[in-house]
Structures are given as structure tokens and as C-alpha cells.
């Protein structure tokens, strides 16, 4: 047993994984000491049940877009020792775009700034909430079938001044296009917000959230249990936008990650 544990760690620790900022990597373990504790850059990473295999565990490591680049460590400690798994954060080669929106969405007044700050704090409280069960029982699907018009991570300049980055993936969607849950969960946010407009956020459990923004109509309310493919609302152009589309985003352990890259690495767990 001990030899197996060692060999898995030895194998993982031989090669540094390369992960772009804003992306997620998932470690799989078939044997792991019960008392093992994971840390990435001094942040606790929960050890979770594998969605498919009862005797396996996974560790999901989301890399913040603002993370400094270079060599990092994932440290695993347990009663009889510790192991270090190397990880390399790269810049992701994201592109750059300039956008024009209403002046009030770039330079909000005092009252608007207070609202934005209140909404931000409320959302971050939710995203850091760790629901200790998973509602996910199948691979993630798309929120609608459409063309991607703006990828995650694009560096953005609003009205020639405000610098930001695109925190989700935009899908082409004319006003009134149905939007569906990409996996099962419980509705955690369903309301109008300053930047996101009419928003739905689904708690999938274990620190994983999916977000659907700028909707014209909401069809769910907070606390609703939703299944993958359930109708959430209609797309629109509410909030800080320059036209109708669906902004789809994901938060993992409080970190904003590339949602479609997260789909890819998480869905791969179902392929073995
Ligand atoms: Zn967007």
C-alpha cells in the first residue's frame, strides 16, 4: 500500500504541470492517505470524491488570472510525511480588445459604486461557500448551442481607460434565446445586478459555481433545484454590455476560471 502511494506521488512530482493563469488543473489519486492535506500557495485545496470512481479522490486546483507566473508548488502533508508536486503557471497568451460602453458603466457615481461593492461582496460570500456535497453526476454541457464571440481571459480596455479582463466566455445569442443549466445544482443567485444584469448563478456543490449573465428574463429563483439542461431564462443585453449575448462564467473555490477549459478538464474525469 505504502509503495503504491509513493509511486503515484513520485510519478506526479517528476514533471511540473504547465497551467495557464485562469485555468484549472485536476489531480487524481487512486490511493491517498486519509489524513492528507493539500495546499497550493498556502491555500487549502479540498480533497474530493471522484465523480465516477468511488475509490478515487481528486484535487481541483484553480489558478487565479492575477496569479504571478512561474514555478509553484502543491504541497501534500500527511501523518507520515509530505510530498511536493511542482506546477508551472504560464501567461496563457490571451488576446487584447477595446470596448465602448455607456460612460456610467465605466465611471459609476457614488451610489452606483456602493451598489457594485455590495453586490461584489454578496457574490464573493456565495462563491467562497463550500457546499459539502456534489450535485454533478455527468459531464458539463454548453448553456446554449451557439458561436463563441469572446473567449475567456481577453485583456480589455473599456472606453479607452478602464483595464480589465474578460472573466467568462461570450456566446452569440439574440435577445430571447433560451439558456440552460450546464449541470445540476441549486440556484444561488437569481436577480438583476449592476454589471452582470439579470443573473443566474448555480451552486454545483464542492465549491463549483456556474454563472449566466445579461439575461432578459429569469425563469428560476434562489433555492430552486435544477437539473442539467433545465431552462434558466432568456438571453438579453442587461448590465454592462454593448449588445445582446450570453456571458457564461465559472467560479471554483472562489477563483474565476476559464469556464470551457474547466468543462474540458472536469469532463475528462468521466472518460476513464
Ligand atoms: Zn462576457
Q: How many structural domains in the coordinates?
A: 2
**Strand portion, in percent?**
35-45%
The distinct bound ligands, ions and cofactors come out as: zinc ion
The chain-level mean pLDDT equals: 91
Question: What is the assigned CATH homologous superfamily of the largest domain?
Answer: Glucose Permease (Domain IIA)
- Low-pLDDT runs of 5+ residues are none
Number of β-strand runs: 21
What's the CATH first level of the largest domain? Answer: Mainly Beta
Q: What is the CATH fold-level name of the largest domain?
A: Glucose Permease (Domain IIA)
Main pleated-sheet profile? 10 strands, antiparallel
Order of helices and strands: HEEEEEEEEEHHEEEEEEEEEEEEH
Helix content: 10-25%
Shape: globular
Descriptive report:
The protein has 272 residues and is an alpha+beta fold. It folds into two domains: 2-90, Immunoglobulin-like, CATH 2.60.40.1590; 96-271, Distorted Sandwich (Glucose Permease (Domain IIA)), CATH 2.70.70.10. The protein has helices spanning 2-14, 103-106, 110-127, 259-267, and strands at residues 17-20, 24-29, 37-40, 43-45, 47-49, 57-62, 70-78, 81-90, 96-99, 148-150, 155-158, 162-165, 169-172, 178-180, 185-193, 197-205, 208-218, 225-226, 231-235, 245-252, 255-257. The strands form four sheets. Strands 10, 13, 14, 15, 16, 17, 18, 19, 20 and 21 form a ten-stranded antiparallel sheet that branches. Strands 1-8-7-3-4 form a five-stranded mixed sheet. A hairpin with a 2-residue loop joins strand 7 and strand 8. The longest helix is centred in the middle third of the chain and has 18 residues, at 110-127. The model has no long low-confidence stretch (mean pLDDT 91). Zinc ion binds next to loops.
